[in-house]
């Protein structure tokens, strides 16, 4: 079995993160922890990408970087 999490980014892209889990509670807890780590890594990469893009846009806009990086956890499903 797998737990699957879909992130919908502000620019319309979707990222799916999944981990293998068993039916017992400890496996589910480990799976959720792993999902958390994977999503954290993905969001850190998005922030770094935004920083690089923002350097080129600095003269064009003064928007806060946080306003340009968005994500929405849309579903958690069992496969």
Describe the protein's architecture and organization.
With 79 residues, the protein is an alpha+beta fold. It has one domain. 47% of the residues lie in helices and 29% in strands. It has two helices and three strands; from the N terminus they run ββααβ. It has helices at residues 25-57, 65-68, and strands spanning 2-9, 14-20, 71-78. Strands 2-1-3 form a three-stranded antiparallel sheet, with helices on one face. Strand 1 and strand 2 (14-20) form a beta hairpin. One of its GO terms (cellular component) is EKC/KEOPS complex. Pfam families: DUF4611.
Topology:
Elements: E1 2-9, E2 14-20, H1 25-57, H2 65-68, E3 71-78
Antiparallel strand pairs: 1-2, 1-3
InterPro entries: GON7_meta
GO cellular component, one term: EKC/KEOPS complex
In spatial order, strands of the major sheet run 2-1-3
Fraction of helical residues: 40-55%
Q: Give unreliable regions as ranges.
A: none
Order of helices and strands: EEHHE
The total of beta strands comes to: 3
Q: Helix tally?
A: 2
The main pleated sheet reads as: 3 strands, antiparallel
Task: Domain count, please report it.
Answer: 1
Helix and strand content put the structural class at: alpha+beta
Average pLDDT taken over every residue: 76
Strand content: 25-35%
Outline, from the CA principal axes?
elongated
N→C terminal distance: 6 Å
């Amino acid at each position: 079995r797998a737990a699957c999490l879909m992130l919908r980014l502000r620019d319309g892209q979707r990222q799916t993160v999944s981990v293998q889990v068993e039916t017992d509670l400890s496996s589910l807890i480990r799976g959720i922890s792993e999902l958390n780590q994977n999503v954290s890594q993905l969001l850190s990469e998005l922030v770094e990408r935004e920083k690089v893009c923002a350097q080129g846009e600095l003269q064009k806009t003064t928007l806060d970087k946080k306003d340009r990086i968005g994500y929405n956890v849309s579903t958690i499903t069992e496969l």
